[in-house]
Amino acid sequence: MIKLNEHEFSIACKIKKLKDEAGSHSPSIFTLAQQVPELKISVDACFLSNPYATALFLRYVEEELIGGGRLRDLLEFYPSQNRIIAQSMSDFIGIGARNIFIANGAIEVIQAVMHRFVRGRVLVCIPTFSSYYEFATTEVLFYPLKKEENFALDVEDYLRYVRAQRPQTVVLINPNNPDGGYLCTARLEYLLSALSFVENIILDISFMHFAYEDENLSLIKAEEFFKKFPNCILIKSMSKDFGVAGIRVGYAIMSEERVDALLENGYLWNSNGLAEYFLRTYAQEKFFKEYEQTRKKYIQQTQIFFTKLREIEGLKIYPSLANFALVELLDGSRAEDFVAKMLIKYGIYTRTCKDKIGLEGEFVRLASRTQEENEKILHALREIFKER
Ligand SMILES: *Cc1c(COP(=O)(O)O)cnc(C)c1O
Questions:
Q1: pTM, whole model, 2 decimals?
Q2: How far away, in angstroms, is 311 Cα from ligand 1 center?
Q3: CA torsion angle for 8, 12, 14, 19 (degrees, to 10)?
């Protein structure tokens, strides 16, 4: 069981204060380093992103923008308007431009959709990404995913619940955050077709690029869900799979009426130069091919990381098809002490799930990083816990 010494305990108190101030999201690694200078942070296993994709995009920025002398333009001029950027992606993602809404990070679409289109009760599975209930202005119903079932969604039970409660909006996140639980395409399509009577189905596919259903790790074409089920509002962050949270970029796919309704009253230049450059780069075959290689490599390394995590005693690693694992501490350790120990002794930043509603027990979430960083995480865990 994890015990903190006096020194660790005093730093842990400072970290806890920062965490309390950050609400339901974790304080950034910069905030931590600034506020608690005695920390030597070397691995951020809190932030859920593909570091190889960040490196790829950085190379494009260096070669095309900085080397090619185009950076000044991006800083000096307005980015394109929302509809123009939507047009530039339309062919690539195979969705009509009028169905695409460009967002300043997925969080902006979540806010927009929750405020504009959610008028009745909204059903959210828990544990979940907190913004879906924090931004709600109407009554929120919680459907608990069960720990005994590894947080997998029981489709029939969920459907019974929806039929009985008749929410106006349902939110599905696939793979889910914070557990990484995944509903395969066939099951998801079955569920979506059975939900045709629900006015808004918000389907958050921010982690879809990390999921796979075949040995080739083929990309799951989530856009198809919108074509088959027009009551869907697909929400996609680019922060995690492309590792570009700093430039705030995401998009949504929804009916033309809904896009029109949002654009009639705002969001004209809600993007920025770098985000527009990113989206235009993303929609190029050449970039995407290279991205696909980083995606597959990262998935493979992530799954190996999970397998090795399962060899450590005292931890339960929940099944995940995302790029992070929900970990339950079974040796009596407290999640806060785990986070403090990992951070203070090993310089590895992780997060507790204390702020997540619907999680009873001592849970932490571990992001998969580069192979070297994952090895550091494993090394620390093997020292703290024992190997099976
Ligand atoms: C991180 C996250 C978002 C928000 O992403 P941004 O594009 O960075 O705003 C949305 N949904 C889920 C499920 C997330 O984990």
A1: 0.95
A2: 30
A3: 160
